Amino acid sequence: MTPEDIDAVHQLADPVAWGQRVLFTLRRPQTAQDAYTGQVFATDGAVTRRISHGFNDSHLRSCAGGFALLRAARGGVAQLHIGEHPGATRVLTNVDLGVDDFAVSPNGDSALVLARIPEEGRYGTDPEVSADAEAPRRITHPQYLHNGLGYFRDRGTVVFEIAIPEAGVEPVGVDGIDSYPVPEVLPELPGDTSDPQYSPSGLIRSAVAGRHDDIDEVDLRDTVWVYTAEGPRALEIPKSLAVHSHRWIDDTRCVLVAQDFTDGPTDFIAQLSGVYVHDTATGATERLTDAASVDAAGGLLQLVDGRVYFGVVTDGAIRLTALELDAVGPATLRDLHFLTPADAVVSGFAFAADGSLVFTAAVPDSFGELFRVPAAALDAESATGAGIAPEALTDFGGVPDAVVPEAIKADGSGGEVHGWVAVPRGPGPHPVILNIHGGPFSQYTHALFDETQVLVAAGYAVVYSNPRGSNGRGRDWGLAVKGDMAEPAAADVLAVLDTALAAHPELDGTRIGVQGGSYGGYLTAMLIGSQEGTRFSAAIVERGYLVPGSFYGTSDIGRYFTDEYTGPAAEDIARQSPIERAALVRIPTLVMHSERDLRCPLEQGQQYYAALRRAGVPAELLIFPGENHELSRAGRPRHRAQRFEAVLEWWSKHLPVA
Fold first, then answer.
1. Which end of the chain is more exposed for a tag (fewer CB within 10 A), N or C?
2. Beta strand spans in 469-522 (E)
3. For the whole model, what pTM was predicted?
4. Distance between alpha carbon 283 and the CA centroid of its chain, in Å?
């Protein structure tokens, strides 16, 4: 894979059963247009073809009377569309900043729409006032920024309900425009709102939002609010829970995916998301999954025939499983019967009329495909589901000459560490790149990875792993870096590196580079500023957490991230601070950062670069205009290609391939 192949990095999601066919959305970058496109495709397993022609279609869902989806024109914002066929829909909304999410009522006569509503005179609502001429913002809350969004408290999330007219019936107009239904704006909830839902009867309308909007406290916990005639009412869910998503079983019970912040409103580190059942009649909330081993993926949640189907973040994958709603919990990871393979990263699922499971997933040799598991296989007795071999219904593939990495395990000081090594074709010795993921409570997966493929195609062997602090291995593994953010993880990534070198003599252990982004940028900076730094020929530190002191006041998560991970004491922060080690760096270092990064703000990279130069380190700073923290995953396609070009240019200069 070369930087020019970025257009091949597609994503599949939103599968919906439709007769003998399955619909899904396919999203991909388009460098020629410097934008992302998304369309709806249909397949019967033999023929796959596009059936919608919007510029960017997403959030495809079936509903009474047809389908609903979000569609954005090029350069525009997403609006809710509905119709009997995804290729022939009508628009229902005209929201200035676009629709973020929606739910259609069970009988299809109304929809709950989630959108951001700007204050008067902001974000283009007054065409005579430019962004630079807007009134000043008065900041009173400790949380007022979101990466990728910017200021958000002057464009709060609101849920409104709209009636869906029958096909061919003209709705009542708004401001003389007769093509948009009149919305009923529901009362605003505390903080940011998400996940609008109806109950199966359609009588209950609900959403997830904060418990309060205290301007003096950061509180990461959310709850479920029900809209009633008397106003919004929060369910009596335990106050320690941070709810991410919910689905109604009936009008009195709902399933939640939530974390339990046991030690306070910011106790987020390595808290595994669990599946809960809440009964509004009794106020009882029961956790169905084990808090130490099962980490539920919040976006993958469905109720079918008395069972809750959900995703689980496992070692290098996201897998589907199910539990009976009346099961006695909590179920541990060993108790679960998985319905998808151990190397699939599932992004969506649905059930066909014949009971078979269809799901979209990234796998080792493709960025995304649609798969089917027959109904009979779903009932098979299996402790792990490792033997499930789903049928691939699509063949979008990956990139030419892709190298499937080899899974490896290393004996680390804190236990077995799992990782991968990707070796270029042809004889060695190959220079090696040690790649480190962000988070830290995140993970590399088995899925085809563009970063690895670009480096391997250029002649570099790539070693990467999920050290302590990562997710997918349970709560204790994730907690291992609390109070010591660098040393346990550094020991683990080096253990995997040494294991790969020992297993593959074609790797050149004398020519190694190291790179990482976000927390990976942090750990890279800590490594090259330690005694182990002399092992490396050069480094790339990307969008890193590099100056904890100023991070506290500039990052959108700064008010709690440093306190929770390093501890608030000045001496503990200094011990775990990359900028305090900058003077110890002895190798060429490229610092890459995005101009609009609010997670690890640009000043983190600027200060670290200045400290390196002051110490006499051969350092460069590369800044991407207009991009935020998600550059490598969701940045402008041309910038993503240019980022790869810059990475390869740096390594060809400091770690040339023979």
1. C
2. 507-517
3. 0.96
4. 32
Report d(CA 115, CA 112) in Å as an integer. Answer: 10
For residue 431, give the nearest of 403, 459, 465 by alpha carbon. 459
HSE (side-chain half, CA atoms, 13 Å) at 534: 1
- Terminal Cα distance for the chain, rounded: 19
At residue 179, what is the residue type? Answer: S
Q: How many other C-beta atoms can be found within 10 angstroms of the C-beta atom of residue 399?
A: 20
Window from 273-282, 303-312, 383-392, 492-501 with minimum mean pLDDT: 383-392
pLDDT at res. 175: 45
SS (H, E, C) 409-449: EEEECCEEEEEEEECCCCCCCEEEEEEECCCCCCCCCCCCC
What pLDDT is attached to residue 216?
A: 80
H or E element, residue 350 = strand 345-351
Please report, for residues 180, 337, 387, 408, the alpha-carbon distance to residue 293 in angstroms, rounded to integers and kept in the order given. 48, 14, 21, 22
3-state secondary structure of 590: strand
Instruction: For residues 10 and 5, give the distance between their C-alpha atoms in angstroms, rounded to a whole number.
Output: 11
Q: Which amino acid is at 193?
A: T
Per-residue pLDDT reduced to its tens digit, 88-129: 899 999 999 999 999 999 999 999 999 999 999 999 888 899
Q: What is the pLDDT of residue 177?
A: 46
Residue ranges per structural domain of the chain: 406-654
Most distant CA atoms of the chain, gap in Å: 74
Structure token digits, residue 630 = 């998600």
In 3-state terms the chain splits into helix, strand, coil percentages (rounded to 5) of 20, 35, 45
The average pLDDT across 325-347 equals 93
The share of the chain scoring above pLDDT 70, in percent, equals: 97
What sign has the CA pseudo-torsion 589, 594, 599, 605?
positive
Please tell me the CATH code under which domain 406-654 is placed. Answer: 3.40.50.1820
Answer yes or no: are the C-beta atoms of 183 and 173 closer than 8 Å: no
Write the DSSP string, 229-288: TTEEEE----TTEEEEEEEESSSSEEEEEEEE-TTSTT--TT---EEEEEETTT--EEE-
Contacts of 428 (CB under 8 A, 6+ apart): 505, 506, 507, 508
Strands in 488-537 per DSSP E: 507-517
Question: What pLDDT was estimated at residue 428?
Answer: 87
Query: Could you give the angle at the alpha carbon of 325 between the alpha carbons of 299 and 385, nearest 5°?
Result: 65
pLDDT higher than threshold 90 for residue 386:
no
Q: Please, are residues 429 and 508 in contact by the beta-carbon 8 Å criterion?
A: yes
Name which of 318, 315, 367, 369 is nearest 340 in CA terms: 318
Nearest of 472, 469, 492 to residue 482 by alpha carbon: 469
